[in-house]
Here is the input.
Amino acid sequence: MEIVLFIVVVILTFTFMEFMAWFSHKYIMHGFLWSWHKDHHKKDHNSWFERNDLFFISYAIVSASFFISWTDFEFWFGLPISLGILFYGITYFIIHDIFIHQRFKFFKKPTNSYARALRRAHKMHHKNIQKNGGESFGMLWISSKYFK
Here is the structure.
């Protein structure tokens, strides 16, 4: 029974991270930490790294904190929560940074209609290079108008 609870907590955390990604993007990245995020919308630098990458580090710190709570403070839920955040971060990195933004040159020409819709929807989001008006949806949700 303990393994079932462990798996459920990992899955619930992963799912909750989709909400956190949307919330963080709308209210933090396009809010008070726009200074970190704006170089992701407007490429005015020559570096491969962006200030926006600080958000990855921030979530990694949260994940590591839960891991430490498991190891040092014997908080049982710390490990599955940490893994849920880690798995979401890996998924997000693969979909957003590798597949959509091509920071690594893999998956150049998708043939899958959902994959093309995902890229198209994200491209629509990036048309806005301002702090306001940057509404977006979670990475796993795509409006039907893009999915053809």
